[in-house]
Amino acid sequence: MIIRSIRRFYCSTIAGEVCSEDYIIKHSLFKGYCKPVESHVEAREYARELKKLYGSSHACWAFRGYSFDERANDDGEPKGTAGEPILRKMQARNIRNCVVVVTREFGGVKLGTGGLFSAYGKTAELALEKADLAELPPDPRFA
Questions:
Q1: What pTM value is reported for the model?
Q2: Do 50 and 103 form a contact (C-beta atoms < 8 A)?
């Protein structure tokens, strides 16, 4: 019981930039990217760069900072269907100081809210599985 509560304060971060395998559902192409960043401003800029670079319809992202700062952005998708599932995958693995961006190239078939939620979550999961994780020490303010 004590070990579990101590472990909870240790977090992981991404060691370097990574791209997941392409995830295709109903002709829409989803790609997931992870990158270590220090702020939500860096996270937003990285998402904009990827969207512009690949000409994607959407570049949805989630950021978790070390100081309990969490942000999620749906980038034009219906509210809560893109950024939220990405953020949940990061929370499940306790990953901080990182952004996960999932780009979507629209394939002509609407997926619906449930389809979008699962597609963005699955793509984020694939990107995080492929990433090299490094352990962060506990925040000295809470030690």
A1: 0.85
A2: yes
Q: How many residues does the chain have?
A: 143
Binning pLDDT at 50, 70 and 90, where does residue 142 land?
low
At 138 the pLDDT is 64
Q: Which pLDDT tens digit goes with each residue over 97-140?
A: 899 999 999 888 899 999 999 999 999 999 999 988 877 766 66
Instruction: Count the Cβ atoms, other than its own, within 10 Å of residue 1.
Output: 4
